[in-house]
Amino acid sequence: MKQNGYVKAVKAAFPYTIPVLTGYLFIGIAFGVMYQEKGYNFLWAILMSILVYAGSGQYLAVNFFAPGVSFLQIIFLEFMVNIRHVFYGLSLIEKFRDMGKKKLYMIFSLTDETYSLFFITKVPEGVDEHKFLFSIALLDQLYWIIGSAIGAIAGTLIPFDTTGIDFAMTALFVVIFVEQWLTSRNHLPALTGIAASLICLLIFGSDNFILPSMICIMIILLSGRKVMEEKEVAENAD
203 and 136: one domain? Predict the structure, then answer.
């Protein structure tokens, strides 16, 4: 019997999402615990992971429930934390162009980890590319939702000391960066990101360097895209 296209795509995508599965379960659990500690029902943590699904933005949002935080502050801080997704989206316009209604979900579900998988994963032979990418995005969000649910429910049953638990997100970013570094022969994009971030950190400070560094990285990578592609082709030929 011929296998359903989406079933085939999910089966093909799952092995590539295992690193995200392990990471999202733990940081999702950490988010759920932090959220529940504020006194909210565990269902709100799950709903937030379904409708917001912003990773670091959700971690930041936990602190917005404190008194004295204005609505304008919330908008500005969330915008600054998630501005990088604008640049992610620009580089995926061609991949998403012909995905029809699925394109809206692909835009919504574009996290750092999903974005990384889109670029380091080759579509297996015989699998529809659009269904494969959609499966990666959907699986990643399901991992996050499950982790959030486990954390929020556990937080209602077991007392936790949440000091330092938000470092889980930073740790996952480091792991993904190292994995990309080891699997890619072209390190120019990574070195560009490191250099631009460090320079902007020194110039603008730790509270304001994200947006300038993203702009610098985008300009540099777009300007040198042809050179980098030629270098990658030459390395692959070797």
Answer: no
- The secondary structure of 126-180 as a DSSP string is TS-HHHHHHHHHHHHHHHHHHHHHHHHHHHHHS----TTTTHHHHHHHHHHHHHH
Would you say 217 and 193 are in contact if contact means Cβ atoms under 8 Å apart?
yes
Would you state the structure tokens that stand for residue 50, as one six-digit string?
């379904």
Torsion of CA 146, 46, 148, 206, to 10 degrees: 130
* Enclosing domain of residue 72: 5-183
The CA distances from residue 83 to 54, 61, 63, in Å, are 11, 15, 19
Instruction: Tell me the pTM.
Output: 0.70
Does 143 share its domain with 227? no
Question: Of 137, 104, 99, nearest to 118 (Cα)?
Answer: 137
Report the amino acid identity of residue 183. Answer: T
Rounded CA separation 238/235 (Å)? 5
Say whether both 153 and 202 belong to one domain.
no
pLDDT, tens digit only, all 238 positions of the chain: 345 688 999 999 999 999 889 888 888 888 888 888 777 888 988 999 999 888 777 877 776 766 666 677 677 767 766 777 777 777 788 888 888 889 989 988 988 889 888 888 888 888 999 999 999 999 999 999 999 999 989 888 877 666 666 566 666 667 667 766 776 677 777 888 889 889 999 998 887 787 788 788 778 877 776 766 666 656 555 5
Same domain, 228 and 123: no
Residue 164 is classified by DSSP as T
